[in-house]
Amino acid sequence: MRRLIKIDFINNSVMTKLSVNINKIATLRNSRGGDNPNVVKVALDCERFGAEGITVHPRPDERHIRYRDVFDLKEVVTTEFNIEGNPSEKKFVELVLANKPTQVTLVPDALGAVTSNAGWDTVKYKSLLIDLVAQFKEAGIRTSIFVDADVRMVEGAKETGTDRIELYTEPYAENYFKNKELAIRDFVTAATRANELGLGLNAGHDLSLDNLRYFQQNIPNLLEVSIGHALVCDALYLGLENTVQLYLRETKAVD
Predict the structure, then answer these.
(1) Which reaction(s) does its UniProt entry say it catalyses (predicted)?
(2) Residue 115, annotated ligand binder?
(3) pLDDT for res 15
(4) What does the buried/exposed string (b/e) look like for 75-107 if buried means 16 or more CB atoms within 10 Å of the residue's CB?
């Protein structure tokens, strides 16, 4: 069993931040009604245990994070607050503008999708993304666009005026145990191009204690990872405080 390790990050030159996605906490709450577990308390506990950000991904059907949760969390989160979602939904745009999080991550979710399964085609939807990015940035909100590890999509994202991109890492996670060098190759190429273009770099989706360190150590200038499902699953066995600390260790690892 993995053991709790308290870490001093002060002298660590690797600055990848860990943002905990609490959607799965809301899913558990909603499965029985009521307010147990309480998503606000879990978010505050994650911060207390060392998390450097809180991520939520409200969807139109509110099957996990409810829109009311976003307002409640905005009142208390003291680290970075990241709201993910599909900006083609007017209700989502209004929610973000009303709460002014640290960051909004634009994700092209299909209606009814179980989870995010692709990044934006930043060439096809360039005009839409330009308008959305400008709207959020005018409100003082840092913008990030969810993209596949494809240099064309990275270059297209740059043309929208976005501050950052978030690399969709499910393909990396799926292939990590087959051939990790091959699995990460396109991500290194995309990240290198993002760095050349001056784009900030985030990543997320299916990152875990198994594959996070290798990713973090090989992706240049990785600013932030957003992790939810794997972290919550690990917390069932290892405890929430222990798990947050273990993920922090992976994001701060150095050779």
Answers:
(1) 3-amino-2-oxopropyl phosphate + 1-deoxy-D-xylulose 5-phosphate = pyridoxine 5'-phosphate + phosphate + 2 H2O + H(+)
(2) yes
(3) 82
(4) eebebbbbbbbbbeeeebbebbeebebbbbbbb
pLDDT digits (tens, 9 = 90+) for 16-52: 999 999 999 999 999 998 999 999 999 999 999 999 9
Residue 231's closest CA among 254, 204, 253, 255? 204
Does residue 64 contact residue 23 with C-beta atoms inside 8 Å? yes
pLDDT tens-place string over residues 190-209: 999 999 999 999 999 999 99
d(CA 11, CA 212): 21
Report the C-alpha gap between 152 and 160 in whole angstroms: 13
Q: What would the two tokens of residue 156 be? A: 């297209």
Q: Which of 47, 52, 84, 166 is catalytic?
A: 84
Is 224 tagged catalytic? Answer: no
189 contact partners, CB below 8 Å, separation of at least 6: 149, 151
| Rounded percentage of the chain residues whose pLDDT exceeds 70 | 91
Residue written as tokens 């060439």? 123
